[in-house]
User: What shape does this take?
Amino acid sequence: SCHASQLCNCSSMGLDFIPPGLTAKLPVLNLAHNRIQRIQSQDLQQAVSLRALLLQSNKISSIDEDSFQSLAKLELLDLSNNSLAHLSPVWFGHLFSLQHLHLQGNSYRDLGESSPFSSLRNLSSLYLGNPRFSVIRQGNFEGIELLHKLWIDGSNLSHYEQGSLKPIKEINHMIINLRNSNIFSEIVRDLLHSVTWLEVTEIKLPVERKSLVQNSTLPFRIQKLTFKEAFFTDQSISQAIVLLKEITSLKELEAINCVLEGKGIWNTEEIAKSGQSFVETIMIIKAVIQNFHLFFDLEGMQSQINQLKRLTIASSNVFMVPCKLARHFSSLLYLDFHDNLLVNNRLDETMCKGSWPSLQTLNLSQNSLKSLEQTAKYASRLTKLNNLDISQNNFVEIPDECIWPKNLKYLNLSSTQIPKVTKCIPQTLEVLDVSANNLKEFGLELPHLKELYLTRNQLKSLPGAAPIPSLVALSVRRNKLNGFSKEEFESFRRLELLDASDNNFICSCEFLSFVHGEAGIGQVLVGWPDGYVCDSPLAVRGAQVGAVHLSLMECHRALVVSLICVLVFLVILLLVALGYKYHMVWYLRMTWAWLQAKRKPKRAPPKDVCYDAFVSYSENDSEWVENTMVRELEQACPPFRLCLHKRDFVPGKWIVDNIIDSIEKSHKTLFVLSEHFVRSEWCKYELDFSHFRLFDENNDAAILVLLEPIQSEAIPKRFCKLRKIMNTKTYLEWPAGEEQQQVFWENLKGALKS
Assistant: This one.
């Protein structure tokens, strides 16, 4: 249960006793919500560094007198909601550092005959009382001089000895639950010089005749008096107004969740005779007035309200203020009527000419106003008004022109269901709130506007900066913004705060580049970085904008595609160059010819064979072929019929088909090889197609004739089968001497006949 910081949380563990083994380093021990019944001397003896001890909501009924003796550093002790039947001064005798003591919710009926707190010189807050607590005696608070907060549950307090609370010289805030109204005035008299803010709950205010300041001397300290869940009648409230005037220091009155049984028939004559009220602020929240529609107009109270500066009547069914009464609020600066029943046709009476002459701030939010034009017109009668809140009214429509107070600086039109903004909005404004109105755009020219709130609308972009040049703060939270550019951001030259959180940001490269590159953007963007989350792309949805970094491909798609296209083009260009250098085209064309030849019969029928040989030779050797070889063979007896491409190819026919047809119609194929054949065009590409058909059949139809000596290694590698044949088969060489030439011709003729 103990963390590394030595904070031990042993709450709600069903413990019946304080666990042993507590160390001297322990600063906080939480034993709340267990079943501990007794605190013994040795239980906390070692916990000398303890600063907070939480023992609330146990069943403690017994504490040994020296149980807290070693806790000199203890600052917080909570013993609330236990079963202590009495309080012993000895318990707290050594708690010299104690600042906060909670003793409420036990079963003691009093605090004893003397003060249990006499040694607690540093006490700051004290919580006392329970439903059985019934007696407060003189001397119970001796030793306490200053408290920040004093809370007493005196719901059944029946006896209070006058002067019991006087030893406390200063109490900033005292809260007392008090149902016995007879004790109220006695407590107030004791607190006049000590308490600053007195809060009384559940009291039924009595019709008190006795002065609250009897035998008391000025100056008084009490400045604020609050009633919560109290009950008033017309008589008691009339008398209370008179008596409270005697407390000249009292500046503020509050009534929260109180009930007034009556119709406002107050004793105005007696109230007027009692003199001027010193109260400057009155706040009434959730007042329950049965038959409030029958409530009188408080005529005769005019003399009591002319010094009032701040008035709040909220959630109390106010539907009108009589004009005669409104004109007497001569000093009122702040008026809050939010969450009431004000309507436009009664507003003419409430804000009649001459009413609320000094009013600067008016809150009419959450009422039943329907016409913005009429509301503005009636508000224009308040000549000094500069702050107007009419939010959460159902205006629905907004006119093109309106009449407003000339000095209006702040206007709240949020949640009024206006569909757009028009020139009805006054140009004098410095602060404008049009949040939650489903606005799709904002283009008003407001030269003095410093703060603009457009939260919860339908805006898809930031409003233009030119019409609002003085803008310092802008809120576009929870709109439909997808992002904003550097230009948009920098166009607001005076902007110090921008709240664009909770939008569906498209984390584009431009947006992310701006966000990451803008120095100090976290100081301008409200809610940064938690409130700025990517909605798309899908891969980064839900991630914080500041943490997203897109890849080069995602950010520069067009550039990357262009580079890829250029690379592909260069690769193709390289392949073309390589193909040209290494005769790739030749290989492709030969492959195509081979495939074409494959689909044809291996050999033409005998009746179609009309040549003895097809001659393949280089153009540079054509003189020898045509003048020597052809003459020798075709004039022989019997003559040989040779197929020459120059002479026998069919004009207009594709050369590949000519070659393949000629080879198929010839018994043999005669190759005339020479250096020209190897080094130049190598018998032209067209004639080379014949190699596929010839060598694919693996027959002896090839006859090689060498005009001059040539090594097989000199033949290009692409003629791999020709190289193989030269290495494995014999061939005829053209001799230089005439005698050998005759033998050559005989051998050649013999080869052609075979």
About this structure: The radius of gyration is 54 Å. The longest strand covers residues 146-154.
